[in-house]
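Protocol step 4 of 6: structure prediction from sequence.
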Amino acid sequence: MSHHFRTFALFALVAVLILGTGVLQSWDLALVILNMGLISAIMALGVNLQWGIAGLFNVGIMGFVAVGGMAVMLTSYAPVPEAWAAGGARALLALVIGAGTIIGAVVLWKKTGNRWLVAAAIVIGFIVYRLVRDPAVDAIEAVNPAGTGFLGGLGLPVVIGWMAGGLVAAGAAWIIGKTALGLRSDYLAIATLGISEILLAVMKNEEWLTRGVKNVTGLPRPVPDPLELQNDPGFVESAAGWGLDATAASTLYIKLGYTLYFTAALILLLVLAQLALNSPWGRMMRAIRDNETSSRAMGKDVTFRHLQVFVLGSAICGIAGAMMTTLDGQLIPTSYQPLRYTFLIWVMVIVGGSGNNLGAVLGGFLIWFLWVQVETVGPAFMTWITSWMADDSMLKAHLLDSVQHMRLLTMGVILLVVLRFSPRGLLPER
């Protein structure tokens, strides 16, 4: 089977699976799978850029996805004037003082090398920072804490927020990369995982900025409001012509709108990733991945190139996180779990084909489809295979009680089967 035919056949299979979901289950579920599949494919594309092309083992994907979601909220949500009046300027001043303290400490260390002077500067800066920050934060969080209690955002268009998500994630990746990319691959994995948890902890606790565990709801969306569609006589008449009620038609219309936005974003990022892969830069990155020692001997700055690709891949993950938050219409910091936003993305890249951008996209669609469908089909499957057992059987009760683990079992089986029969993935790197 030729490489091109195999690629076409596997993507056709994914299309058939999603269309079959629409025909046999519901088109609403099919569009849910499609939209989150598009977002998952973008995340897998970012990880493939880091691991498949550059060999960087980043297990902090969750942190960059979460930062992207926070950025779109800070960009697109309307500002809260009362909170800004209560302490917005002082909170921003505190951030400036904190950043200035860190920069000043670094400059002092480079200029003098005196650890006591640096320590004194950090302590003084921290005290001033807290003296400015704490009253401002208390004043902001006291403004209608049940409804707002935070500064809000800038009120810009949502699509600009997606770009902001990529930029903020790239900035966070640059800071992390400057400190962690000199580590060996296993230590890099531990560092990125720990730092992603730190980023998530900041989101959960800085209520004046993100509302923390209270969540931010009602985020603006790039598609029409469902109530406006349902009250539009023209839309209602068109929906009736398709045999749909206004509520169902508005849901499908909105999800199709998201599909168009996400498809355009995926195609753009995929084209750019392919151009980068096939460029001299891409060949250089693969050479560094395969043999760092010989690349250094040829005069390549390996650390800088690793930082470069780490920032680019994290930016793509940040864009995906911003898109997902927009799709949900809310920012929920507690929903970011390593299982979903790190482990599952790695399974997508490995199953699809590490080093192949199309493979990463395929893995994003296929694994997400299975992840969703196992939750639906799993209970029925377990009931069927235990139907011959006696009702008082302890084994039957145990198996039925373990249905919630079917997702993890399925992902593990898929990963083992693919690694056994196609170790380089379904669409291996050429």
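Step 5 (inspection) to follow. The first strand starts at residue 216 and ends at 217.
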